[in-house]
Design a protein that fits this description.
Helix content is 72%, strand content 0%. It has 15 helices and no strands.
């Protein structure tokens, strides 16, 4: 999901890359939860720190992704036009969603099967893989569900909704101009005020109230859109979309301050404290606690979104070859990482190592495997053109040719 180069926007590519790569750490940490949550496997080494990390990291990584996706979608729409934009969305999002599902769904089912057996000491990899493949026999039942690729499905739905609303408003051009001007003025005033995160937290808390749990639901069980999830991610996408109309305002969004940092720390701490009351419906003030939690959690979302953008702007504004390479690879890495993570979690589950060593190892090995596959199989192939709009030379292949031409060998 790469976009045309603009020096002022390099850090936004880095933000998107960060949001995607955070997914590896998030999924890799789930086997170290101190209670069984239905994940493929539960490691022998668990930690009380992991639930806090899972709760906080899950709060902002996808809202951050959808915000940046909205920004770049508006950019792409106005550069390419409607028809080219729709074609690009279908090629870059729709095809990876469908093809990725057929590849990843059997592997994930196999991982769950092998993981469940491994906890009983009876793992059979071949049987697990065969069970994964046999799951395709149930089609069309379960088509496009049960994987981490749900975010692509929602990205398509939200993009289609935004285009439809834009078309309806365009029927009356005068009304469209007035509403656009009002929207631009409102966004400018919201970003100027130091209360930005509080203002954005209000509608976000509304969406969070309708989630099944105290947090953001993962809508991977059905193709029927979940209202609360669609509303929250749609809000993030829409903000990114309208922000591109006034791209300079992103400079304000990315400005860091001690006040914002304090608000972020306070909201994170309050979220962790109040989360322990989830499900305790017999408490006298349960309703008030839940309302407070939803607002504080929403405040955490936008505080961390803003902090992430600010840190990337501060440290990753200057374009360099390594960062460009990783941002190009990040989409592919996220698409294929989950089965690799699950199988590594199973392999590490019974090793007598500290949980943090295991978690770090799983993340690092996953990153290296996916990055290697990107360089050798994707970057210079039609897949690279599909995911990043154009083919680029493989670094390892070029290094190999350079060695051969130099006559020095390896």
């Amino acid at each position: 999901m790469a976009y045309q180069h603009d020096e002022r926007l390099d850090y936004l590519d880095a933000v998107r890359c960060f949001a995607l790569l955070m997914g590896i750490v998030f999924h890799a940490s789930l086997s170290f939860m101190p209670i069984y949550i239905g994940w493929a496997v539960m490691d022998e080494q668990t930690s009380e720190v992991v639930p806090s990390f899972v709760l906080i990291s899950h709060s902002f990584r996808m809202p951050l992704f959808f915000l940046i996706a909205g920004f770049f979608s508006h950019m792409s729409f106005h550069r390419k036009g409607l028809h080219s934009f729709i074609k690009s969305r279908l090629m870059q999002i729709g095809i990876p969603l469908v093809l990725g599902w057929f590849l990843l769904r059997p592997l994930l089912i196999a991982g769950w099967h092998i993981g469940a057996e491994s906890m009983r000491g009876e793992a059979d990899i071949l049987v697990g893989l065969l069970n994964g493949l046999s799951s395709l026999k149930t089609l069309p039942h379960g088509f496009l569900v049960g994987t981490h690729l749900w975010f692509l499905y929602y990205l398509l739905l939200i993009s289609a909704t935004v285009l439809s609303l834009r078309f309806l408003l365009g029927i009356n051009e005068s009304l469209k101009r007035k509403l656009s001007a009002i929207c631009d003025r409102f966004i400018e005033k919201v970003l100027i005020t130091p209360w930005f995160v509080f203002i954005m937290a209000l509608p976000s808390a509304f969406g969070l109230w309708f989630m099944q749990h105290w947090g953001i639901d993962t809508p991977d069980k059905s193709l029927i859109p979940v209202f609360a999830v669609s509303f929250l991610y749609g809000l993030c996408f829409a903000l990114g979309w309208v922000l591109h109309r006034q791209a300079a305002l992103f400079e304000r969004l990315a400005n860091l301050s001690w006040t914002q940092s304090i608000i972020c720390i306070a909201s994170v701490c309050l979220t962790l404290v109040l989360s322990q009351y989830e499900g305790q419906i017999n408490l006298v003030n349960y309703g008030l606690i839940k309302v407070t939690y939803m607002f504080v959690y929403a405040l955490t979302i936008w505080s961390l979104v803003r902090l992430s953008i600010g840190l990337c702007k501060t440290f990753l504004s200057k374009r360099n070859a390594l960062m460009s390479y990783i941002t190009d690879a990040s989409y592919w890495i996220y698409l294929i990482h989950l089965p690799i993570v699950v199988f590594l979690q199973i392999a590490f589950a019974e090793l007598p190592l500290p949980w943090l060593v295991k978690l770090s190892s799983i993340c690092l090995i996953t990153f290296l495997i996916t990055l290697l596959s990107y360089d050798l199989l994707v970057r210079a192939s039609f897949l690279g053109q599909l995911l990043n709009h154009k083919k680029k030379a493989s670094v390892l292949y070029n290094l190999f040719l350079k060695k051969l031409r130099s006559g020095r060998g390896f």
